[in-house]
Task: inverse folding
């Protein structure tokens, strides 16, 4: 099981577009068809860290594209990380506090244990992705 974490630095500081980032992840997964991948969604920034919501639009594009890919790929699954825009988890809206690091670690551990079949349950996904999942499920039945 390969854990994949991409984030704000990829989109914001390195100038990588959402399309380039998602294409890179998809091609990497396709290159290793016998490997399981688990992608932790990119958490949106707090408003004070993204005043004009430009980075958050890119984040949503990446997350939704990779979630849709996860519906078509048995080897790639996306899960929703906790919202780290909350003040007590990320003081500046970007960087985690100690409590935020604990919450994120717990979220990853849960997702890994579920994906490996050690823990019962489902991978956490955000509410707006439930709509995408429902639409996808209706099309394949």
Result:
């Amino acid at each position: 099981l390969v854990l994949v974490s991409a984030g704000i630095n990829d989109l914001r500081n390195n100038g990588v577009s959402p399309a380039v980032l998602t294409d890179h992840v998809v091609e990497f997964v396709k290159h290793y068809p016998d490997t399981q991948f688990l992608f932790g969604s990119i958490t949106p920034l707090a408003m004070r860290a993204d005043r004009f919501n430009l980075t958050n639009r890119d984040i949503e594009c990446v997350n939704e594209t990779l979630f849709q890919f996860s519906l078509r790929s048995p080897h790639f699954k996306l899960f929703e990380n906790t919202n780290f825009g909350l003040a007590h988890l990320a003081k500046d809206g970007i960087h985690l506090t100690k409590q935020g690091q604990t919450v994120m670690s717990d979220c990853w551990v849960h997702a890994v244990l579920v994906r490996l079949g050690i823990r019962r349950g489902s991978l956490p996904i955000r509410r707006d992705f439930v709509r995408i999942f429902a639409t996808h499920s209706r099309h394949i039945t």
Notes: The mean pLDDT is 84. Helices lie at 8-13, 18-31, 54-72, 98-115, 127-140. Residues 54-72 form the longest helix (19 residues). The first strand starts at residue 2 and ends at 4.
